[in-house]
Amino acid sequence: MSNELIDLCQEMISIPSLNPQDRQNFQTPYGEEQMVHFVSDWCKTHSLDAEIQPVANQRNNVIVSAPGQDGSKTLLLCAHTDTVGTDGMTIDPFKPILQDNKLYGRGSCDTKASLACMLLAFHHRVNAGPLPYNLMLLASCGEEHNMIGAKTFAQNHGHTISAAIFGEPTELKTIVCHKGSLRLKVATHGKSVHSSQPDAGRNAIYTMAKEIQKIEAFSHQRQKETDHPLLGHETLAITMMDGGKQLNIIPNQCQAYIEWRYLPKHNANDCREALSKVLESTTEINILNYFSPMQTNPDHSMVKQCRQSTDKICHHQKVEGVSYATDASAFDELDFPKIILGPGNIAQAHTKDEFIKLDQLKKGLDVYKTYLANDWGI
Questions:
Q1: Mapping DSSP to helix (H, G, I), strand (E, B) and coil, where does residue 24 land?
Q2: What is the CATH T-level fold of the domain 180-291, as seen in this structure?
Q3: Per-residue pLDDT tens for 139-161?
Q4: Best CATH choice for the domain 3-178+293-373 from the list 3.40.50.300, 3.40.630.10, 3.40.1190.20, 3.30.565.10
Q5: What global pTM score does this model have?
Q6: Is pLDDT above 90 for 2?
Q7: 258-280 burial, b for 16+ CB within 10 Å, e for fewer?
Q8: Is the pLDDT of residue 334 over 90?
Q9: d(CA 115, CA 100)
């Protein structure tokens, strides 16, 4: 295996880039700034045209670009620079270790391996000769929380993109669709009184208990009514609750929080409206956030080219769907083919001893190189 690939991936792992979530002021290990400057400097050292795109306070993307012979089309490669947190990890998250043909460290699997492979494949293809079309690489910030980097790029440059490959740990299977993710806050209201006189008030928790039964029944019904050949059925579940202010006060409010994985044929507002029809009119349902589903025609020529590349390197042409959302959600309103494809197994992402197998790492680079060396199918 190329020492350059392992070295690059190790250097990235050693750079802390934890997603800061909703923190406004933060410092290392939070934020992607060190990764942004590392990627930008690496590109400049390798004579690639890279620019830093401002996104928010202490948050930036890196955009790498190379012109093609036909400037009317642009292929985008995208991988994120941020990682999830490190609480509970049993290994040093920022000390990359090679052991048993695996590379350990936070971000090794999700998704600095994909980013390293994409950068090297990009550089290799640019040096191999004229590009058929424009080629861009987006090292995005914020994917692990609100996809703020991809959204900013899509708003400013999305109209120039003709097709995109998003690097995530798919075991180098070609992913053509994923579910959307919808987070809802359901709130019931009551009347607070002293707990010694409960009948004089209205207990918001009791009201919520009745609503929860309806939500559970609705989730079972939704599973029966929804289906997708690659994604299966929709799922929704209450994952958090809170209510009441004090032990001796009848609660006047209660909140339940729902995580809903919905299919490409639906949208967030439709889902919310469907749930509202089974709950009381006085129950509030608010959308906290959502990430749209993604779907590309499995018969698209770009998909076929990716499958040919994985067949040559991995000896399979698997096309699948996944339940998790990706940066592809940020481009939901743009009508171009989107594919999720990268080295590593999602089962190792976000874990206490995150790793990527070296065989997957090598094949990831080879798959990207093979795809870029042939017809892109766009």
A1: coil
A2: Alpha-Beta Plaits (3.30.70)
A3: 999 999 999 999 999 999 999 99
A4: 3.40.630.10
A5: 0.94
A6: no
A7: bebbbbbebbbeebbeebeeebe
A8: yes
A9: 23
